[in-house]
Structures are given as structure tokens and as C-alpha cells.
Fold this sequence. Notes:
Largest sheet: 10 strands, mixed
Strand content: 25-35%
Amino acid sequence: MRRALAVLTGFCLMIVAAACGERGQPSSAPPASPSASSERPAAGDHQLTLQHNGLDRTYLLHAPPGYDPGRPSALVIALHFYPGLGSSMRELAGLDARADTDNVLVAYPDGRGGGFNALICCGSEDDVGFLKALTDHLVQTWHADPNRVFLTGISNGGDMSFRAAVESTGTFAAIGVVSGGYSGNLTTADSYVPKSPVSVITFIGGQDRYASTFQAGMQTWQQRLNCRPSPKASGVPGVTHTVAGCADGSEVSVYTIADMGHSWPGATSGQLAASSAGLSATDLMWEFFAAHPRKA
Length: 296
């Protein structure tokens, strides 16, 4: 059903320059052209290109003011919704401000055709391979710390985070998924889980049309990894929180916001923002990432 909705959304966007469903992006502007200048690691905002499978893949890279190429930095890769761009995710998630405080690199890749080849949709590109290649490049060229590489995304980008966590063994220490899920044909096999520990923090809106799918996916994920969830006080009315330790040493943290739809809790601008959710997904996942570097 989500695949059909995504296709319909894309079709409507070709007809009118307005959103046609909550997974849409009300802009049909093409991605910005990558900079022609040579790539030189330095603080600031960079529009860059990485060739993968014969294609030029574009991404935004934010390097904080305190960035030092000689000192390893944590890296967060943030994946947008469908249809969208890296700039859409940058506006929505508000990661740059936290990155500036904690001296972290943040990359915002552009999906091909506005999306990523995730668990439900969209497209047929080797996005798992692209994300791994992007990580390797940023480790080698920008000196990102390979033990502190994290992946986050919303909707299609959240689905892609789950796929990359499973299929990119040893690449990502933890993922932060907002309004996205572990579902679809690829996930039917019990063996479709990470082969090395990947911790997960996820945020689910109780009013999201996909809420039951997301909840079922998290139950399956935890069952397969032998996780033992227990309730924790969220401190926010209408928000439930469970935390689970898993047999492989990973941890799963699930927030459910009863009155929220298909959105990013705490975001104050951008498509899919939910400023009144009562908590900040950005702040909570940032703390979660800091506490979950890759296990040796």
C-alpha cells in the first residue's frame, strides 16, 4: 500500500506544484549542481559529488566550525523523505546546530528521483552500496571516525536506514528512524537482521497511517535479535517509551507519540514537522548516538 501511495504522490507532483499526501515534498526544483571546486576538507557547508556505479551522486556536507581534519569526528548521515532532497532533510531535522556544538560531521545525500531504494520503495539504485561508499569516502577523506558513524532518516529515509543497517555489516553503529519501519518483502526472512550490533532509536506517531506496520516491525526486529523490552517513563503526557537490551549487545529504544501523525517530533520547520509533539527526536537520537559507538 505504501508503494502505491508513493507512486501516486509522485504522479500528483508532476501535475501540480503542491503536496499530494503527507509523504510528499511541495517542491519540484531539481537538485543544486555540485561545486566544481576540488574537494578540500574544511569547516563549512559543501555541495559534493561522489561517483557510484557510474552515476554522480550528490550530497550536502556540513562540517562544524571546530572541524579539524587531523582529529576524527563522529558522522551522522541523514536521509530525506520521498520525494525530497538532502536540503529537505537538513531543514527538517535541525542537526547542524547540534553538530556545531559537538563537532560532528553531517551528510545529507540526495536520493535518485527524489527517493531511496528502501524496503517498500523507491527506485532501483544500489543505495546500500552508495551509503557504504559515502561512509568510506568520508572516513578516508574527511577523517570521520569509523566507530562513530550513525544513520538517520524519516519515512522513505527511515525505511532505508533499516535496510542499510542490515545489509551494510559493520558500517553503522546505530540508526535513528522517524516515521519509518522495518517491513516489506525483504524483511520476511528471519535471517534479515544485522550481522553485527546496530542499536536503534525510533519514533512512531500514534496517528500515522502506518503506525501498526511500524510497531509490528519493531516487535519482529526485537524478537529476532532476542531483545527484552521494558517500559520507561517518558516524562511527556501521551508518549510511551520502551527500552530493550538485545542478545548481540545492541539496544532498541522506541518512542510512540499518541497524537502525532507521519512527522518528525520537535521539528519547527520543513515538510513533516511536528513542533507540538512534546519531545525532540533530534535531541533524543543525538544523545542516543553519543552513547552507542560501534562495538568492537
